[in-house]
Automatic annotation (TrEMBL):
Organism listed in the record: Cenarchaeum symbiosum (strain A)
SRP54-type proteins GTP-binding domain boundaries: 57-251
Record-given protein name: Signal recognition particle GTPase
Pfam families found in the cross-reference section: SRP54, SRP_SPB
Alphabetized SUPFAM superfamilies for the sequence: Domain of the SRP/SRP receptor G-proteins (SSF47364), P-loop containing nucleoside triphosphate hydrolases (SSF52540), Signal peptide-binding domain (SSF47446)
One Gene Ontology cellular component: signal recognition particle
Cross-referenced Gene3D superfamilies: P-loop containing nucleotide triphosphate hydrolases, Signal recognition particle SRP54, nucleotide-binding domain, Signal recognition particle, SRP54 subunit, M-domain
Keyword vocabulary terms for this entry: Cytoplasm, GTP-binding, Nucleotide-binding
Matching InterPro entries: AAA+_ATPase (IPR003593), P-loop_NTPase (IPR027417), Signal_recog_part_SRP54_M_sf (IPR036891), Signal_recog_particle_SRP54_M (IPR004125), SRP/SRP_N (IPR036225), SRP54 (IPR022941), SRP54_GTPase_dom (IPR000897), SRP54_N_sf (IPR042101)
Any Gene Ontology biological process: SRP-dependent cotranslational protein targeting to membrane
Annotated ranges, domain AAA+ ATPase: 56-232
Length: 397
């Protein structure tokens, strides 16, 4: 990645890490990870789709060097847009690569998308002009596939400039190979100076490639990543998700569930969070914690997406834990307000009454009391590192 870009990102990370205070219940380490995700996701752009103007034909110019998968992505995008209800046409303006038009037509036939092209014609801008006239107002979206290679780079960029004038696109999409890394910055910058890039598509993310070049391309053009290609099939294209992509980039998995949990901590009851982190947690607070874990979705999915936990927790143990959380919430609902506020009141007779009221055995009520005490002690000892404490007290750390 470009050294200046690395320094810029590092500077923003340092500024936020020093200047921001983590919300109660979130450790500084987790907060730093969240900041890192925020900054990288901001560079890559949010999760966005094309915003087509109604009542007119929207022209999309596909840019990129040879080998980036541009023609394949054009066909994939044509099928995706057709599936979304848009009448789509494609203009094949790659007059340089032998067989380019045949390849494009073969792929687009699978989704019944018409491709306009002229075999043997070398004037790409003229092909574009005639192709746009051919489709006229019959399409909602027209995709223009262009050449990716000439003998000289200058010739390629000059042709892109002339095609840009001929097409007058509403959107120029830059297709980049997710495997090429730091070379993306110079490529993206060169194309952007020729035809203003409005969005980025990253291809070849079905291999071990992490797609780090997308950050460089976004920085060079100021554009968001819109779609990614994830395989060889015509359907292997998906809308860009910043959390999944950044997780892959850093080798940390999809941490969407963890980020949502952090957001709930930030948006939650600050008085309750301060009370928990200071070791003064009530049974009501514990009930809310159990609800937050349940609200994060499948506990198996949550842990599988957490750095360091993927594949380390047995499915049977997770199922037991999910069942225990559900039982505990029922038991807490059978307590009086006084018992919730001060669980030390739970003597033998109270435990017997709560067991009868909740429908669960007395040993489950005692197990809840033990789990509550362990949780309270662990959070206090860890000085509010709620996420780590939660996992350890559940026997998963």
């Amino acid at each position: 990645m470009d050294v200046r870009l690395v320094k810029e990102i590092a500077g923003r990370l340092e500024e936020r890490c020093v200047g921001e205070v983590p919300p109660p219940g979130l450790s500084r380490k987790d907060h730093i990870v969240k900041i890192l995700y925020d900054e990288l996701a901001k560079l890559l752009g949010g999760e966005s789709e094309f915003s087509f103007k109604p009542g007119r034909t929207n022209k999309v110019l596909m840019l990129g060097i040879q080998g980036s998968g541009k023609s394949t992505i054009t066909a994939k995008l044509a099928k995706l847009l057709t599936r979304q209800g848009y009448k789509t046409g494609v203009v094949g303006a790659d007059t340089y690569r032998p067989g380019a038009l045949v390849q494009l037509r073969t792929m687009c036939e699978r989704s019944n998308v018409e491709v306009y092209g002229e075999e043997g014609e070398s004037d790409a801008p003229a092909v574009v002009r005639r192709g746009l006239r051919h489709f006229g107002d019959s399409c909602d979206v027209i995709l223009v596939d262009t050449a990716g290679r000439h003998k000289e780079e200058g010739e390629l960029l000059d042709e892109m400039k002339r095609i840009g004038k001929a097409a007058e696109p509403d959107l120029a999409l830059l297709v980049i190979d997710g495997t090429i890394g730091n070379r993306c910055y110079a490529q993206a910058e060169a194309f952007h100076k020729t035809v203003p890039v409005g969005g980025i598509v990253v291809t070849k993310l079905d291999s071990s490639a992490k797609g780090g070049g997308a950050i460089a391309a976004s920085a060079a053009t100021g554009s968001s990543v819109m779609y990614i290609g994830t395989g060889e099939r015509i359907d292997d294209i998906e809308q860009f998700s910043s959390t999944r992509f950044v997780g892959r980039l850093l080798g940390m998995g999809d941490v969407r569930a963890v980020l949502e949990l952090a957001k709930r901590l930030e948006d939650g009851d600050q008085d309750r969070l301060k009370r928990i982190s200071s070791g003064k947690m009530t049974m009501d607070d514990f009930y809310q914690q159990l609800g937050e874990v349940a609200g994060a979705g499948s506990l198996q999915g949550l842990l599988e997406n957490m750095p360091g936990f993927s594949g380390s927790v047995q499915t049977g143990k997770i199922e037991q834990l999910e069942g225990r959380i559900e039982r505990w919430r029922y038991i807490i609902q059978s307590m009086t307000q006084a018992e919730k506020a001060d669980p030390d009141l739970l003597n033998a007779s109270r435990i017997k009454r709560i067991a009868r009221g909740s429908g669960w055995p007395e040993h489950d009520v005692k197990e809840l009391r033990k789990g509550y005490n362990n949780s309270k002690g662990m959070i206090k000892a860890s000085k509010g590192r709620q996420m780590q404490g939660m996992l350890r007290r559940m026997g998963l750390g």
